[in-house]
Structures are given as structure tokens and as C-alpha cells.
């Protein structure tokens, strides 16, 4: 896996100046839009308005060059693929080249054979332009001279930088390589070579994601805005309930509703929360969001009230949005009644609220798959912040919009941030013992088989049997990618494919498995079998069978592995040491549950571990568990006391990681206790 530091090192070796910056320090970074062109990295002005799409080398030519596609038929296939993945494929020329399409410097270098290791195309620039247009792509014309001052190499998924006439820059959205399964070193080498040959600036900023916001960060920000804010655990909030697939994904507004489905997630203006966060301002985009919400197992909605004129304008969030009063968020192209009609037409719901705002507090809820139902006599704004992860929203932007909305509506500047109850390994041991298991805690230093995960290793099932695939040094989860699907309530093929993409973007190889004696073979995954038969409590069975699941995973770029032989697992390892795993051993089988992966994918940890315990029990596996926790952290005194033994920087870092991991374990959910018993 190529890291930002690797890129800096390579560029500096080529004579560049390069530095790593966090996304929060790049104000020009915006979310990509499905209407934006997948266009060239070229920073010059365009005759096309849609500059909020991903930037790649020569537009679609980035994919063809990376894969060795040199003919028109292959180019057209790439165009179709780009469209199928939700992007607008394009190529470009400029206003002074002859012929005009030769104004793309990347294509010019490619056609002249000046990109090392990349075979030139069999077609010229005009034939390429014609093929792209014929296949449903776009041709844009750029103008003026190159005046780029910097090269942005952007590693933040789903974001880009729009060209700025007065401040040109090359923008290489490197995350797109993962979307199309490109050879990343080859892609970045081609980018560097292109800039160098075009006499561009040898100065790069590698943009990386900012660290995830913590509740403590949010408290600090709110207090800086004049709020009173504190953090509370879920057990102290009596009104917290599980969300239901029949509940509305509705507005945070705390007033009474004429609809009974109040046990759905609460978001800003209902589906308008997603539209505003992604920059969707048109009716078509709104309808697509309604469909997406339905596919993710929620009931999409918007609202009005009983005294606004027109009624749908009774949503204060929509009113602020439509008036352009939300910083950094473009107003919609439609009014409240048109929005209401579009949501209803797409299969969503319109609810009518009544009375005046009397909210006393703002709940910001981080407990996955939970919410608080409105209470007429005790109103509160409820912002289910966990939903941002489910729909891949910009969390800071989402929470800033929430705070701004409450402030402009003269709501209470008092917030309670609800976080999961703590859960310790000792708690897990107690619960397992209550289920008849034998369980004990061991430190990582006592487990000889513990190894670091590799980006080439499969994110595979916990099953301990031998595999036909060599990549056994990836994380072990329930049924591979099915672990995420079951935890989030994803039951359809589209949602499964999205998870496969997410796993790839997070640096793992997504997989599912079968075995050599099941009929059909993919039904050899015991976890999938239990899921499909509805035998996992609280988890809805999938809408697809094992073969359809296998096909979907492969189609989305994942892997199918075949296991062999019978189950002979002797122990269940529940591993809390981040980025480590245990590879299967044919002569010494074990179930390996890498519990740390739940945090990486924002899963409901109790639900995840309950499903793991239930699966082992129903498969008649060993009721014997070893919970692997990080070894105690090295202290500065340890290092000073034995410099000849462990005096390297690596040992100090290892100790710090151990301390961090212990803190992570302490932050897991206490609700596991009640729900597992």
C-alpha cells in the first residue's frame, strides 16, 4: 500500500519539494458531484460548468494508459465503466492547439510514446474525442496558458478541487485509482512524469484525511461558539431507542408529528441533510438520494408544519438552505413545494409537524443505529451524527450546519453528546462465561502467531480451515465483507457492492468464501448460511443467495476463496490489537475474530461480537475464547533503563501504540453486556 510518506520520498528523490497536509487545511477541497466531469488534472479554465468531478490524467485516458488499453473499442468500454460507476467521463483539448484535442498535454505525451512503460494509443486525438462522445462522454475545451503553481495529490476519497483561473493548480485525485482498481505506483509515476515534461511546478502538496473528530473536539468547537456542551454515555439517556426500518429518516426538529414512525434516524431536514452535504441542488439529484436512503433500509422524508405558508416551508433547515444562509452550502434550484413533490414522487414521505419550537437541548448522538423519539412535553433537537458515516458525509460540514441551524433558529445553545458506554475485555469474559464459555485475557506478546496485517491480505472470514488463496495476512471478520453488511442492515446486492468498494478504499482486499463440499459451493460459509436462514438474532436475512453474493463481490472487484476440509477449530481468538491478525494453520485450526476492525468501519461492536458468539455456538464450535489485548506500553523509563536492548525509535512508537490501543478497548460499548446475556 502506497502511503503519503512514500509519495513524498519518491517525489523528493525526483527533485521535487513535497509536503503532507490535512484536508482541514485546504479550504478549496470540495465533495465531488455525480454531475461533475471526471476530467483532466489540467488547471486551466474550461468551457464546461461542472468542475466538481474527480481530476485524473487526461480524464478517462488515465484509466486506459494505466491498463494498457490502446484501441477505440477499449476506450469506449472504459467510458461505459466510468458512467456505470456514477461519474461523467470526459477528455479535453484547448483553444489554440491544432488539432484542438491535442491540447491535452497528457494525451500528447502518451501518443508520442513519452510516458515510460506505457504503450502509445492506436488512435489520434480526434479519433479519441469522437469515440468518447459516441460512447456518451463529454469533450471540454480549456483556454489560455498553463500557469499552475502547485500540484495537489489528493488522497481524500470523494473530494476534489475545482480549477481556479486566478490560482491555477494541477489536481491529481489519487483516490480515484482505488475506484477503478488501477496500479497506483504506475498512476502516480505517470502524473509526476507528465508535470515534469510539461515544465510544471515541482512542488506538491499531498492531501490526507484529517483525523476523525472526537466528541471532545466537538465540545471544544461548540464551547468556542458560545454553547454549553458535555459528553454523556448512552446508559444515562433513558429515551435512547434502536432505530427501526419502518421509522422515518426525519428532521432533527423536536415538535410533534402526524406520522407514527418516530423511531428512525434524525437528520437535518430529513433527506435534505444528504443533499446539502454533497452539494446536490436539483430535483433529479434529490430523487436519487431518496432512492439511496430506501436502499440503505430507511424511510426517506421531509416535512413542513401546520402554520407555514406554504406548509413545506415549515422546515427551518430547508428555509435557511433556500435563503443561502448556510455557509459553504449552495441553495437549491427548487422551492419547498417542489422538493416535497419530488420526495413523494420518488417514494418518500412528507410529514407535518405542529406547534411551536420548545426544544430545551440538542442531542448529538454517536451511538450507531439508535435515536430519540420526539416528545411533545419535552422537546429536543436530535442529531443522529452516526448517520454521517453510513452515507459517507463530510462530518465537520454536517455538524457545523447543525450548529448553525440551531443558532439561527434561536434554539438552545446546550448540547449533550451521547457516546457508547465503555466495554472492557473483562466484561466480555464475564458475558461469555455466562453463556457457558471458558474465556481468558492474554497479551499480544504471549500469542506467537500474531502478525501484522498486509494490504495484500484478504479481509476474510474467521473460519480456520485451509484456503486456496495465499493472502492470509488480512483481517478476519464474520463471513468477510458480510460482517459489515449484517452489522449495518444491508441486505441487497447494490449495498453489498458499495461495501466491497469501501473495503478497498480502506486498504483491504474484500472477500467472501465457500468450501469444497457445499452445494452450492458459496454456501460453505457457515456465517452466510446462518444469516440467509434468519438464525442471527436482530439481523435481517439478505435478499440474495450465496451465489448471487459471490458474483456481486467479484463484479465489484473483490475475491472469492475456497476453503477445504472439516472444521477442527480448538479455540476462538478475539483480537483487540489493531492492525494485527492470526493466519489460519491447517494443523492447529482456530476461529480468529479481529474485533478491532469494528472500529475501522464504524460498526456496532456489541452487535458484532454477539453475532460472532452466536455463530460459533450454532456451528458447534469450541466454547473457549482467548481475548488478545495490547501488551503494556513501554515507558520512557523502560527505554532509558535498557538502551542496549531496546533503544530504537520503533520501540518507543510500539509502546505508544500499545497505550493507544488500550484506550481504544476502554471506549467500546457496555451495552454488549445486556444484549449478549
Brief summary:
The chain is of the alpha/beta class. It is 34% helix and 19% strand.
| Number of H/I helices | 25
The structural class is: alpha/beta
Rg, please? 26 Å
Distance between the termini: 41 Å
Instruction: Name the strands of the widest sheet in spatial order.
Output: 1-10-7-9
Percent of residues in helices comes to 25-40%
Content of β-strand:
15-25%
Low-confidence blocks of residues: 642-677
Inertia-based shape: globular
The biggest beta sheet reads:
4 strands, parallel
Give a count of the beta strands, DSSP E runs of length 2 or more: 30
Task: Characterize the structure shown.
The chain has 25 helices and 30 strands. The protein is α/β, with parallel strands linked by helices and 677 residues long. The chain has a four-stranded parallel beta sheet, covered by helices on one side. Helix 3 (72-84) packs across helix 5, helix 10 (283-295) crosses helix 12 (336-345) and helix 17 crosses helix 19. The protein is globular and about 75 Å long. The two termini are 41 Å apart.
Write the layout of secondary structure elements.
Blueprint: H1 4-13, E1 17-22, E2 29-31, E3 37-40, E4 55-56, H2 61-67, H3 72-84, E5 88-94, H4 105-111, H5 125-134, E6 138-142, E7 151-154, E8 159-161, E9 170-173, H6 176-179, H7 184-197, E10 203-208, H8 215-224, E11 228-233, E12 240-242, E13 248-251, E14 266-267, H9 272-278, H10 283-295, E15 299-305, H11 316-322, H12 336-345, E16 349-353, E17 362-365, E18 370-372, E19 381-384, H13 387-390, H14 395-408, E20 414-419, H15 425-434, E21 438-443, E22 450-452, E23 458-461, E24 476-477, H16 482-488, H17 493-505, E25 509-515, H18 526-532, H19 546-555, E26 559-563, E27 572-575, E28 580-582, E29 591-594, H20 597-600, H21 605-618, E30 624-629, H22 636-641, H23 643-646, H24 649-666, H25 671-676
Parallel strand pairs: 1-10, 3-4, 3-5, 5-6, 7-9, 7-10, 11-20, 13-14, 13-15, 15-16, 17-19, 17-20, 21-30, 23-24, 23-25, 25-26, 27-29, 27-30
Antiparallel strand pairs: 2-8, 12-18, 22-28
Helix pairs in contact: 3-5, 10-12, 17-19
Amino acid at each position: 500500500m502506497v502511503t503519503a510518506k512514500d509519495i513524498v520520498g519518491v517525489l523528493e528523490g525526483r527533485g521535487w519539494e513535497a509536503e503532507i497536509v490535512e484536508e482541514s487545511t485546504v479550504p478549496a477541497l470540495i465533495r465531488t458531484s455525480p454531475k461533475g466531469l471526471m476530467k483532466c488534472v489540467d488547471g486551466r479554465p474550461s468551457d464546461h460548468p461542472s468542475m466538481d468531478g474527480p481530476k485524473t490524467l487526461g480524464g478517462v485516458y488515465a484509466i486506459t494508459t494505466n491498463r494498457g488499453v490502446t484501441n477505440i473499442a477499449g476506450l469506449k468500454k472504459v467510458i461505459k465503466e466510468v458512467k456505470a460507476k456514477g461519474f461523467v467521463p470526459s477528455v479535453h483539448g484547448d483553444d489554440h492547439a491544432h488539432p484542438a484535442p491535442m491540447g491535452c498535454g497528457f494525451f500528447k505525451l502518451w501518443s508520442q510514446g513519452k510516458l515510460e512503460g506505457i504503450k502509445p494509443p492506436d488512435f489520434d486525438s480526434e479519433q479519441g474525442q469522437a469515440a468518447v462522445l459516441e460512447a456518451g462522454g463529454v469533450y471540454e475545451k480549456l483556454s489560455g496558458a498553463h500557469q499552475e503553481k502547485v500540484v495537489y495529490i489528493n488522497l481524500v476519497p470523494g473530494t476534489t478541487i475545482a480549477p481556479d483561473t486566478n490560482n491555477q493548480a494541477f489536481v491529481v485525485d489519487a483516490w480515484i485509482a482505488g475506484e477503478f482498481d488501477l496500479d497506483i505506483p504506475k498512476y502516480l509515476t505517470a502524473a509526476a512524469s507528465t508535470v515534469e515534461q510539461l515544465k510544471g511546478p515541482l512542488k506538491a502538496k499531498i492531501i490526507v484525511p484529517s483525523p476523525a473528530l472526537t466528541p471532545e473536539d466537538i465540545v471544544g468547537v461548540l464551547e468556542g461558539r458560545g454553547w454549553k456542551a458535555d459528553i454523556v454515555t448512552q446508559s444515562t439517556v433513558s429515551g435512547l431507542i434502536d432505530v427501526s426500518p419502518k421509522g422515518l429518516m426525519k428532521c432533527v426538529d423536536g415538535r410533534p408529528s402526524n406520522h407514527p414512525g418516530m423511531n428512525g434516524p434524525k437528520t437535518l431536514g430529513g433527506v435534505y441533510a444528504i443533499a446539502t452535504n454533497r452539494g446536490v441542488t436539483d430535483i433529479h439529484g434529490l430523487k436519487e438520494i431518496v432512492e439511496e436512503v430506501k436502499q440503505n433500509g430507511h424511510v426517506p422524508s421531509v416535512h413542513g408544519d401546520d402554520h407555514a405558508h406554504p406548509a413545506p416551508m415549515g422546515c427551518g433547515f430547508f428555509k435557511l438552505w433556500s435563503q443561502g444562509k448556510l455557509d459553504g452550502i449552495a441553495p437549491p434550484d427548487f422551492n419547498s413545494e417542489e422538493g416535497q413533490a419530488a420526495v413523494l414522487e420518488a417514494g418518500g414521505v412528507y410529514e407535518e409537524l405542529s406547534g411551536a419550537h420548545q426544544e430545551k437541548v440538542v442531542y448529538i448522538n454517536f451511538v450507531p443505529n439508535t435515536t430519540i423519539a420526539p416528545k411533545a412535553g419535552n422537546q429536543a433537537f436530535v442529531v443522529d451524527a452516526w448517520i454521517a458515516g453510513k452515507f459517507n458525509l463530510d462530518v465537520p460540514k454536517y455538524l457545523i450546519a447543525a450548529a448553525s441551524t440551531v443558532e439561527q433558529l434561536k434554539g438552545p445553545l446546550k448540547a449533550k453528546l451521547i457516546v457508547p458506554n465503555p466495554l472492557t475485555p473483562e466484561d466480555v469474559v464475564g458475558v461469555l462465561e455466562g453463556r457457558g464459555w471458558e474465556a481468558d485475557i492474554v497479551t499480544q506478546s504471549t500469542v506467537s502467531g500474531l502478525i501484522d496485517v498486509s494490504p495484500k491480505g484478504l479481509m476474510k472470514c474467521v473460519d480456520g480451515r485451509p484456503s486456496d488463496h495465499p493472502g492470509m495476512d488480512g483481517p478476519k471478520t464474520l463471513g468477510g465483507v458480510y460482517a459489515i453488511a449484517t452489522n449495518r442492515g444491508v441486505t441487497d446486492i447494490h449495498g453489498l457492492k458499495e461495501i466491497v468498494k469501501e473495503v478497498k478504499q480502506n486498504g483491504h482486499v474484500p472477500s467472501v468464501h465457500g468450501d469444497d463440499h457445499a452445494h452450492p459451493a458459496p454456501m460453505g460459509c457457515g456465517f452466510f448460511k446462518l444469516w440467509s436462514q434468519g438464525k442471527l438474532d436482530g439481523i435481517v436475512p439478505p435478499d440474495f443467495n450465496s451465489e448471487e453474493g459471490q458474483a456481486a463481490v467479484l463484479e465489484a472487484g473483490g475475491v472469492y476463496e475456497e476453503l477445504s476440509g472439516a472444521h477442527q477449530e480448538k479455540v476462538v481468538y478475539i483480537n483487540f490489537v489493531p492492525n494485527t491478525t492470526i493466519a489460519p494453520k491447517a494443523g492447529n485450526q482456530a476461529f480468529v475474530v479481529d474485533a478491532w476492525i469494528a472500529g475501522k468501519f464504524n460498526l456496532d461492536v456489541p452487535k458484532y461480537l454477539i453475532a460472532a458468539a452466536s455463530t460459533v455456538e450454532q456451528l458447534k464450535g469450541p466454547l473457549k475464547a482467548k481475548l488478545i489485548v495490547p501488551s503494556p506500553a513501554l515507558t520512557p523509563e523502560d527505554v532509558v533503563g535498557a538502551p542496549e536492548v531496546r533503544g530504537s525509535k520503533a520501540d518507543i512508537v510500539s509502546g505508544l501504540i500499545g497505550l493507544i490501543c488500550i484506550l481504544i478497548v476502554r471506549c467500546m460499548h457496555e451495552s454488549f453486556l445486556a444484549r449478549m446475556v
